[in-house]
Amino acid sequence: MGIFNWFSKPKTFEKCDDAIWMSRKAKWMGIVTEIADQSAAGNRVLLVAHFPDTTAQACEILQRMNVAFVEEKQRWDSGDISRFTQHKDRLPFVIPAESLPDTPGRQQPHLVDEREPAFSVLVLERHLLSSEDERVARFAESLPGRSRLQFFQSLEDPLMQVFAGDSVRKTLERLGVSQDERIENPMLSRWVQAAQQKAQKQALGNAKAESAESWMASNMPP
Question: What is the 3-state secondary structure (H, E, C) of 93-151?
């Protein structure tokens, strides 16, 4: 490959299919594995949580697995983003979704050296409102250089339990999927998005909550 080919393609933003597991325990183990894989590839990893309970659980699990990380609590601005992109140890950052700046996404393509590390934004759960996930997606797309985005979900998470769990579980069981097996499939991603659309139509508001369960108790009709 010649030197001019290094810069011949525009910046790419990859939105991966959702990574789905049967259980929450398997999902968290899968997240730890994904962090290790992305870090080994030299990519900068940003873990995004929609709810404080998820942030606390992520930090607890990473500490228990002896995975070094940086927990961010303040609202980010351009300076904080630069600090993340230039962090010398390239540790995973854990940050609440609400602390990310609201960006318009990529305005125009950038030319980049494809040998450079990518930014890997791993969202630890789907919000029940698709608009909240879309805001995270715009942020991931706006990052400099190459970036990828992936959502992590289990059938035990509230969104799937209430709006899609039975049908998805029956399909996976019929296919012989094991409890700890990671599944990525465009059809399953569409089912997750359809579940969000159902939740968004029924939601009475978007009051802040400690967890997805408490969010549903506060924002969904009884």
Answer: EEEEHHHCCCCCCCCCCCECCCCCCCEEEEECCCCCCHHHHHHHHHHHHHCCCCEEEEE
Amino acid at 218: S
In this structure, is residue 214 part of a structural domain?
yes
Residues whose CB falls within 8 Å of the CB of residue 56, separated by 6 or more in sequence, listed in order = none
What does pTM read for this prediction? 0.88
* pLDDT over threshold 80, residue 72: yes
Residue type, 147: S
Closest CA to 63 of 52, 71, 51: 71
**Structural domains of the chain, count:** 1
Asked whether residue 7 is assigned to any structural domain, the reply reads no
